[in-house]
Automatic annotation (TrEMBL):
Stored Pfam families: Ldh_1_C, Ldh_1_N
Keyword rRNA-binding appears in the UniProt entry: no
Residue span, Lactate/malate dehydrogenase C-terminal domain: 159-323
Listed name of the protein: Malate dehydrogenase
SUPFAM superfamilies found in the cross-reference section: LDH C-terminal domain-like, NAD(P)-binding Rossmann-fold domains
Length: 330
């Protein structure tokens, strides 16, 4: 029997592949827990509304006790009105041979308009996870069009990169993922990202020295950074269930907190920490306490890390400048 007030959750791209995994996890209580009902708002474009209705029918057919209501709409204003959480998934995905930069112009306008709708009508505690690519810059665009919403309420999904890094490392070490802590993926959700295990421990003991710089530079970093492309090449379409799982992880930790001193990776508007650029949505080590993300401060950065972080931040700056040139931000 549920006991707390329902949470209103908007999912855009509701007829798409990621949403098909994400919505059922939300409806099962994986973000808000077993006592909190969810009011699901499904937003998609007019031509996809019928398919979104089919997804809603399937959610109904699961007879899930936490589903308070399901609304389907092609109207962003209605979709975000009173929303406590928004998963901005809806966008054109990257196909074979496409670079993420090709998506900037195609998807940027979507996030400008949705930022405006969130600013106009979302609840005061709105939490936004941008999944649609290029996720960091789309989150940047949305937050720039929501001046009444605190910047820290706009995040982009880099938990998938974080989870990929954890999994690759666990395999290399023959360690359970649960024993690993202190991974961070700096920068952009793109091939320039820097998955960094400099601070990583296994059951409290440092692991980095035993991994070898060659393995880290030549195998681990490119494998994690190019995993999205590898999935597209092997699977024939971009990651879906793993992306949905990571989006759930990110929102759950945001709402419920990260344990103790542990951190995770979140892309959020930087305050300039670690030589990143203020305002730009950047992957950083973050803890969640009291329902807010806090960037972990004071980690030492060596020359190798500095060069990698700077390269990814440079790409984010070029994306920021490109969307400005396209008229998508002031
Ligand atoms: P998909 O093509 O299966 O679904 C996208 C859906 O978005 C479609 O139903 C489409 O109609 C809808 N849509 C398009 N424009 C919209 C708008 N203006 N408002 C609402 N809905 C709209 O794609 P998918 O596989 O679900 O991927 C969605 C996005 O997520 C892509 O941009 C993809 O590149 C990205 N992605 C990000 C990550 C990450 O880690 N950040 C991982 C995987 C995929
Ligand atoms: C992923 O990381 O799987 C997605 O962002 C797909 C992509 O376009 O790289």
């Amino acid at each position: 029997m549920s006991s707390t007030a329902p949470v209103t959750v908007t999912v855009t791209g509701a007829a798409g592949k990621i949403a098909y995994s994400l919505l059922f996890r939300l409806a099962s209580g994986l973000v808000y827990g077993p006592d909190t009902p969810v009011r699901l708002r499904l937003l998609d474009i007019p031509s996809a509304v019928t398919a979104a209705e089919g997804v809603a029918m399937e959610i109904e057919d699961c007879a899930l006790p936490l589903v308070d209501s399901i609304e389907i709409t092609d109207d962003a204003t209605a979709a975000f009105d009173g929303a406590n959480a928004a998963f901005l998934v809806g966008a054109m995905p990257r196909g074979k041979g496409m670079e993420r930069s090709d998506l900037l112009s195609a998807n940027g306008a979507i996030f400008r308009d949705q930022g405006r709708s969130i600013n106009a009508g979302a609840a005061d505690d709105i939490r936004v996870v941008v999944v649609g690519n290029p996720a960091n810059t789309n989150a940047y665009i949305a937050h720039r069009h929501a001046p009444d919403v605190p910047a820290g309420r706009f995040t982009a999904l880099m938990r998938l990169d974080h989870n990929r890094a954890l999994s690759q490392l666990a395999t290399r070490l023959g360690a359970p993922v649960a024993e690993l802590d202190g991974v961070v993926v700096w920068g952009n959700h793109s091939a320039t990202q820097f998955p960094d295990v400099s601070y990583t421990t296994r059951a409290g003991e440092p692991v980095t020295a035993g991994l070898g710089r060659d393995w880290l530079a030549d195998t681990f970093i490119p494998r994690v950074a190019n995993r999205g492309s590898e999935i597209i090449a092997v699977r024939g379409s971009s990651s879906a269930a793993s992306a949905a799982g990571a989006a759930v992880d990110q929102m759950r930790d945001w709402v419920h907190g990260t344990p103790g001193e542990s951190w995770t990776t979140v892309a959020l508007p930087s305050d300039g920490q670690y030589g990143t650029v203020p305002g730009v949505v950047t992957g950083l080590p973050c803890r969640s306490h009291g329902g807010e993300w806090e960037v972990v401060e004071g980690l030492e950065i060596d020359d190798f890390q500095r060069a990698r972080i700077d390269a990814s931040v440079a790409e984010l700056i070029s994306e920021r400048d490109a969307v400005h040139a396209l008229g998508l931000t002031d």
